[in-house]
Amino acid sequence: MLLSVVLLLIASYTSTLHAWWEQRGDIQATKAEIVMKKQQIVDLEDQKVRWNDPAYVKQQAKERFGWVTPGEVGYRVIGSDGAVKGEVPTLDAPPQAAATTPWYDKLYGSVKESGKTPKPAKPTTDPDKVLKDK
């Protein structure tokens, strides 16, 4: 009798201990995520401050777009195959419009289509042949 009570207590404490251990792991993971997010915030704030500096903006324009300031000479090295060697600054493609037609034109088009009479479906088999077979 005493052994069964002890086993029951161990079983109940084991499940509680297991839940505590899992929650402890979740808390540690959340704390690590918070530290990582705080570091990202610091990095982004630093980047925001740098973009307020005209010298940094000029440097980024030179690197990203290949701009040169007045008085400088820009060079591109072109290989024997005619391709530009090294890093070539490129502009990102502009974002594509999600829809070329407004939503209300699509809505009206669907209303207009729903008012049409449906076309009769073409029979898949020859009706005369089906009658002859019977």
Structure overview:
It contains 4 helices and no strands. With 134 residues, it is mainly α. The longest helix is centred in the first third of the chain and has 50 residues, at 2-51.
Describe the structure in brief:
This protein is mainly alpha-helical and 134 residues long.
Structure keywords:
flat, 60% helix, 4 helices, 134 residues, mainly alpha
Give me the secondary-structure topology:
Layout: H1 2-51, H2 54-65, H3 103-114, H4 127-133
Mean pLDDT: 82
Uncertain residue segments? none
Sum up the overall morphology in one term.
flat
Q: Which class of secondary structure composition applies to the elements?
A: mainly alpha
Q: What distance separates the N and C termini?
A: 82 Å
- β-strand percent reads under 5%
Beta strands, count: 0
